[in-house]
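Handoff note, outgoing to incoming analyst
You'll be picking up this chain. Sequence as last confirmed:
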Amino acid sequence: MIIAIDIGGATLKVASYEAETLSVPLRRTTPRDFTAGFSLIKDLVRQAAHGGVIDAIVVGVRGVLAADGMRIERDTVLLNWVGKPLSYLLEQEFKVPVTLAPATVCAARADTHAVPSMYFNVGAGVSVATPENTIESHDMLDALGATISGGAVKKRHGKEPYEIPDDHAFWRHAADYLAHGIAKLAKEQHAEVVVLGGAMILGNPRISIPDTIQSVHRLLGADASPMIIPTRHGDNVVLLGAIRLI
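Most recent structure output, in case you need it:
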């Protein structure tokens, strides 16, 4: 049995994977405090395993992963998790191999395509990856994170994204902002397919993918634009992609 963990800025998910089947993920609010978060992870792992034998644990983490692959090195949301030896602690607790990877890379691995592709996660923050690596320290990501991420919305509007009516002008503007990010980064990465996921894309209300496509076509022209599609794995995309790391 493999245990897959998705540590998001807003939601923590844990599921088991056995006989090519992913269990229904256990979902909890991600604690901002690492000690509380690790305690919750331990409990959820044991619940997901149902007393079975765990062979390995794979974890998709938000933020920037340290070079040794054992901890979060930098993040704008889970600040108290930064630098904590997550991989080592999980190995000591469960006595199995543990693999950590950027959540966006996991998602990109889950939604692979025959042509060059990239994955945009728009949730508590904004992150982008190809199946091979994350795209870090980019001015466009900083701009998107400051305008269309869940964290930015809460800071600017004083409410959660799901509390903003779907006919509010914010959602139209968000599609335009996202389109500029897709146009720039897809061109730089030579991506022919852009997969979209995260709570701001999959939630309700949400950033409109048709509106985003229209805006990208205006910026690049329809023939030069990448194909833009939602993840086919929904909210489980990071969990399923993490499993592919084994």
